[in-house]
From TrEMBL:
<keyword id="KW-0472">Membrane</keyword>
<keyword id="KW-1134">Transmembrane beta strand</keyword>
<protein>
    <submittedName>
        <fullName>Aromatic hydrocarbon degradation protein</fullName>
    </submittedName>
</protein>
<keyword id="KW-0998">Cell outer membrane</keyword>
<dbReference type="GO" id="GO:0009279">
    <property type="term" value="C:cell outer membrane"/>
</dbReference>
<keyword id="KW-0812">Transmembrane</keyword>
<comment type="similarity">
    <text>Belongs to the OmpP1/FadL family.</text>
</comment>
<dbReference type="Pfam" id="PF03349">
    <property type="entry name" value="Toluene_X"/>
</dbReference>
<dbReference type="InterPro" id="IPR005017">
    <property type="entry name" value="OMPP1/FadL/TodX"/>
</dbReference>
<dbReference type="GO" id="GO:0015483">
    <property type="term" value="F:long-chain fatty acid transporting porin activity"/>
</dbReference>
<keyword id="KW-0732">Signal</keyword>
Amino acid sequence: MKKILVSTALLAGVLSYAGGFRVSLQGVKQLAMAHTSAHAEDASVTFFNPAGMSFIPSKLSVVAGGFGASNKVTFQNLNTLQSTETDNPLGTPIYAAITYKPIENLSVGFSFSTPFGSTIKWPDNWEGKEMVQKLELKSYYFQPMVSVKLAPWLAFGASYIYARGKVDWDKAVTQFNGQVNINDDKASGHGYGFGFYFRPDPKLDVSIAYRSAIDMKADNGTATFKFPTQTPYSLLKLNAAGQDGFTATLPLVEEYTIGLTYKVTPKWQVSADFNYHGWERYSKLVLDFANAPLAPNNPSDPTVLVSAKNFKNSKTFRLGTQYAFTNMIYGRLGAYYDESPYTNENFIPETPSFDTYVITGGVGFKLKQFGIDIAGGYAMPQYRNVNNANLGFYGQAKAKAFYFGLGLSYNPF
């Protein structure tokens, strides 16, 4: 029974993954410039700061794009020297947005994005199989928004966020030679964002934005156990199908962003961003099972599993540049550094996270009202000496990743 309890307690890892993994792939042009935010050329600015809509030169702007994200994680047990590598499928974040100015100083818009999500797949029989075999996470943000130009050089914008999410997680229950699947595809939550966008000089854009934390409510989750026999069903108080329900709150973190873009010359601009992520709200995670007594250390209610977390707030530093070779062709480069939200002592294989350096680049083409953007990024995660005593998980973790994207824009009038 102890192994079942330990394994199931690690469900907290998947809940943190819903907020602990931030996908910085929401604008192809922005990615090419290190994913900087102070760019108001088209509707792609809406994800970063709704106030930027007021400075889009076109009355109507439409954008859409998608990415391919490839990553692999390798874990080596330093005692046995055995190495295990993930076999992750290609991630495909997407985004789309539209903005419109019904009157001169008022802009409205709508943004769809996928800011959290990924799939990690370890071998079924690897040494951490009780923690994770496969984990798929998806999230979708739907954001209507409005922006008001308060002065020729200043705008304020705000957005409402409706979020939907899905989690699908497999891991082993070795005590009974079985497996459990944790699934919920109807988690939802609400949030908001707001920001100020400044253009005090034609050469300078400044973006200050805030996106709130969102508590994703999973009210109808299902834990499905598979064993060679039904003997454990009564022990775990499962139904005839080997299932139990659960509820949980999956927190997605808040984010503060300050960005600026300066036009050094009419053809050359430089951009910089600072992001601050509020990971400290992960002090604990609570999972409430309908019947299964999976928390014997909680005498008041053994069906309520509480897992302490030790996440810390983190920062990201970004620097990008763009050069106009002609009125139709633009070259872009960038680099950024992204901190991990937890230490080596809190490393978990469900949500492997690393301090990471990333270099980016891309090209853009303008064809009258149409724009085509291509971007790529290469990540250099720093290896970690894993020392998680709570999980009994020790070794060395390494990763590698790269991204590419294609974006389209249309500014008809």
